[in-house]
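Entry for the shared binder. Reason: the reviewer on the internal report wants the predicted structure included alongside the sequence.
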Amino acid sequence: MEKLLRSLVKASARLYYNCTQRSNKRDYIPASGKVLGVEELDNMIDATLDMWLTSGRFNDEFEKEFSKYLGVKYVSTVNSGSSANLLAISALMSPKLGKKRLKKGDEVITTAAGFPTTVNPIVQNGLIPVFVDCETKTYNLDISKIEEAITPKTKAIIAAHTLGHPFDIVKAEEIADRHGLWLIEDSCDALGAEVNGKKTGTIGHIGTFSFYPAHHITMGEGGAVVTNDPVLHKIILSMRDWGRDCFCKPGKDDTCKNRFNMQLGNLPFGYDHKYTYSHVGYNLKITDWQAACALAQLKKLPYFLKKRQENAQYLTQKLAGLEDFLLLPYVSTGIKSGWFGYLISVKENAPFTKQQLVEYLENNGVGTRQLFAGNILRQPMFSESEIPLRICSSDILYSNQLNEEHYKMLPQTEFVMNNTFWVGVFPALGQKELDKTADTIREFIELTSLQ
């Protein structure tokens, strides 16, 4: 009876869904977007009918399948990619890591060109962010600048694979190993990207992913932290789940069969292990409803990645001949890009600015995005706060005291802020939308050249 009732509910929902979908006509071409279908709807209906409102059977299945896809041992879902980065850094502060733990005042190398929540967890944990420049070919962390920024207080590196293009993780891993540093890969924009056949997010000590609607697959809000290290995995789970020492899943008790037979901290012997806390943690879990959506999305990921790559290749063909004015995306040898978006930079000697081109595109129905924060050190979050930091090999500075000379220490990051933007290649875009994108860019350049 239950199976029949579920089928009837799904049939009704599918009918409603199919009747209410908007046409594919696009007056405005967004830079990013989700692609959902009845498979996601079916899963979410099942999760709704279960009435299990926290993580449950769909989450278990998603973590299992995502682990299999990545080829990584441990996956912990979280409520956003930003939370994933917060957990990744916070986990390295755990006393359970002994001498390898990070402590307040330790330094973490990163880049200023990217999304704020790659950097924020460094500051939020009382660590010192050390900013090195990016490179203009891939817009990634310039690996050649890392070693000159290392001091005895440097303990970790965290960097994003910018817009799906992997940074030189091989060299970064070699540097991290040689100097005894933790390496965190922010793969929130790079799901499916590969370096020499290995998926990004699985090469460093910890990898992070985002499932926000703009990303390769979505669960609405959501993310994941992955690792091959069982100690880190246990710490991550603890910090995700209120900081508790117990690893029972929601609704489960006494998985360790030792619930009332422990003495931890200064608690009395036998104090309930389910209410024993070994870390200052959070509650960053997802709902089963979100996992149900992502599970259906994961099955479509190979198609999504293929379509993104095809769209990027098509745009490159359509924009051929404009290289005197624009820098188009570059993919290194041995790299498979995840193609989150299509990065374009206006050359310094072009007869127009990025701002002029972006405004023309937006006014003509083509959506654009900046490379996130541009130079994050210029953002109000830094300029209006007193945050200790270092730039390259400088001494410690304070963010509200930075001036133009300090910004000049990151010349490529400044270039990104002033010259770089991106347009969409997500799977819902077809040839018509891509033609409009490329034609509008070409039209603007031709009009500007005639002036």
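Summary line for the report: The chain has two domains: 40-290, 301-374+411-450.
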